[in-house]
Amino acid sequence: MNRFTAVIFDLDGTLLDSIADLADSMNTILREMGYAPYETEVYKIMVGEGVHKLAEKALPESVRDQATVEQCVKRLREEYGKRWAEKTRPYEGIPDLLDGLTARGIKMSVLSNKLDSFTKLSVSHFFPGYRFEFVMGTLPAVPIKPDPFGALFIARELHMEPVQFLFLGDSNTDMQTAVSAGMFPVGALWGFRSEDELWRSGAKSVIRHPLALLAVLD
Q: What is the DSSP string of 3-45?
């Protein structure tokens, strides 16, 4: 009998290569505000901690006051709402992985620091036909990753123990979440962050292709 019977996925950088749409949206806002844009690759170290943190990191240090950050976040939501699916695509191998997990009867959920509305929209758009027990993004007054609240909520709602879960993500935030929740942290090397970051943040396995998760499961 398999030790693991459920998987929680991060979304951006794990299931979806979304960095270009995120970068294009934020750069549009920065240009509007009169600030220099960033190369797309730079956003790989900016994203992952929610939209407010992204705005804070992207804005010049001299204009990171609350009012300016909130203005930036409001516009970013509007701009990303126009282009969230322009360049975003599932990573190679992800549909095959979801097929393999489904065939094994593994329960699948998504936990993201992306806004809840965009998280649900992205999953339903890019992964139609797959059953996800829970799809959760950032909600008001709910702690975001690396707080383990969301992961533990999913475990409780599924009437499962945290040790039954693999947690697949591409960043230190995901590995720390899994460790804090008592789940098995697996780092995704096709995502936005480095292998060193994943190991240092508590990964117990690091994989280079989505289908390798099936070997960890077995």
A: S--EEEE-SBTTTEE-HHHHHHHHHHHHHHTT-----GGGGGG
